[in-house]
Amino acid sequence: MKTCCELCGTATNDKMSYLELKTWEIDQLIKEVKEFYSICYKCFDKESEKQIEKDADHDLRKQRALLYKQLEQDGFKCPSCDGKFTVEHVCQSN
Question: Does the reported pTM lie above 0.90?
Answer without folding.
Answer: no
